[in-house]
Each structure stands twice: as structure tokens, then as C-alpha cells.
Amino acid sequence: MDDQSNRDRNGGGKQLALRDGAQEKQLSDPGEKSNDEKASSRDSCRLSLPPMSSTHESTNFFLQGPDGRLESVLWRPTGSAPAIAGLVCHPHPLFGGTMHNKVVFQAAKALDSLGIAVLRFNFRGAGLSEGKHDRGKGEVDDVGTALEFLAAEFPETPLLLAGFSFGCWVGLRAGCEDARVEKLIGIGAPVNNSDFSYLLRCAKPKLFVHGSNDEHGDVEKVRQLVASLPGENELTVVDRVDHFFTGKIEELGKAIREWLQPAPRHARGTR
């Protein structure tokens, strides 16, 4: 690619300039290590990633949504108040998507490993949630219900919203409109058949994680989208994986943790 620049020190991938405030990180074969990656391991000033760990109390419950009860699970970090509270939205319920989807679970694990409170829920009509699928319109209201819960449960705590596939399309729309949401994570954005033009009005910091062979979102269309967005945006492309990051699901968690790690640590130091 013509606009490749310096190697990324944090991931051993290639970082590309897209526009002011936008970056791309290409995650290649984990077995391939660049000279910069080897050097970074010797850099005593570099922040090391904490290991994935389960450090939460888990509560299963129902939220009262606009079209009935919404099945939910909250992971609350033990030992201290969270610096951030996050919501992770699942893929299309008409194609088997639920909050237990492996990509959603991996994203939740990544957030949890950083001491972030994490809420997942099933959209209307999915799992044990009541109501009927509403092709995205009503589901935006479902996301709003979940954000209201997080804001009440963790007052004066910044909110983060992540979504995978259908959950990306619906969730990021709600997150852009809610002033309490400060950061957005779009996973497997289905740009082939979904309208993401609402993001053109959203200047909040955004991370996009995408498979180079994603069958529901052509990676070049995703690059064009990210390059057009206002604010600080980063795109991480995982090489040679499909929509579900098959075979490299751990790269999703790594991308999320590397993007977010400075924020929770800074927040904890100022509380």
C-alpha cells in the first residue's frame, strides 16, 4: 500500500496515515516480529499489557426496555470503582446473534481485564428478552435503555460503547447521540449493506477492528469510511480473518486493550 509509514511499536504491524487524527494498524501473522517490536520489549518506559483475567462480580438480571424485559449480564470489577463503564452490543438476532456471541464475549473480556465495568444484553426478541425484532429502529432504543442503566449504576463515570456487526451499526448510532458516551468501538462494521453516514457527524474517539477478509464489510470500504470521519479515529485490520475473526480472535482483545489502556490508568490516577 502506497501510504504505509512507520511500523507500529505496540503491535508489530504497519501504521498508515488516513487523515488528520486517523490511523490504521495492520495486524499480521503473530509469528512475524519486526525489529521495532523486538526493541519495544526492551523499552523500560513502555506500558505492559496486563494478562486477561476474570476480576469481576457477575450479575444476571432483566432491564425494563421499551418493548419488554431485556435479558442482561453485568460484570462489575472487584476491589475498586471502575474508571469507565462499557456496553457491548451483539450481532444480528435474526441470524443467531446474542450477547453470548464469541466476538462480543472477547470484547467484554478485554474491557474487563482493564478494570472496566461491562454490561451486555440481548436485543428485543433475542434470548430471553421480550419483544419483536424491529430492524434496527427499536434496537437503538434498547441501547438507550442499557446506557441509562449504566449511567445510573455508575454515576459520574464516563461511558464507552462497543458493538459487533449489527450491534456496531445500531450501537454506535445510539452512542454518538448520547453525550455520556465518550468512546466508541466498532467491530466488524457491516458496511456492505448498512448506512454508517451518521458517523460523519460524530467526532468522538473511535476504534474500528476489522478482518481483512470480512464478508459483510469490504475492508476498503471500511478504510474509506474511517478516513472520512471527524475526530480521532483508529482502524486495526486483522490479516486473513473473516467477519468472526476465526483463528485470531485474541487479536481483537489485544487491539481493544492497546487502544484503551492509557485511559483507564490515567483515570484511576486522578480519582
Brief overview, please?
With 271 residues, the protein is α/β, with parallel strands linked by helices. The chain has helices spanning 35-40, 102-113, 137-153, 166-177, 219-228, 249-260, 262-270, and strands spanning 4-7, 14-19, 22-27, 56-65, 68-77, 85-89, 117-121, 159-164, 181-187, 206-211, 233-238. The chain has one domain (4-25, 52-270): Alpha/Beta hydrolase fold, catalytic domain (Rossmann fold), CATH 3.40.50.1820.
**CATH homologous superfamily assignment:** Alpha/Beta hydrolase fold, catalytic domain
Order of helices and strands: EEEHEEEHEHEHEEHEHH
Strand line-up in the sheet with most strands: 1-2-3-11-10-9-8-6-7-5-4
- Contiguous helical run count: 7
| Average residue-wise pLDDT | 84
Cα-to-Cα separation, first versus last residue: 43 Å
* Total domain modules: 1
Write the CATH architecture name: 3-Layer(aba) Sandwich
Question: And the CATH topology?
Answer: Rossmann fold
| Morphology call | globular
User: What's the CATH class label?
Assistant: Alpha Beta
Strand element count = 11
Q: In which range does the helix fraction lie?
A: 25-40%
Radius of gyration: 18 Å
Structural class: alpha/beta
Largest sheet: 11 strands, mixed
Strand content: 25-35%
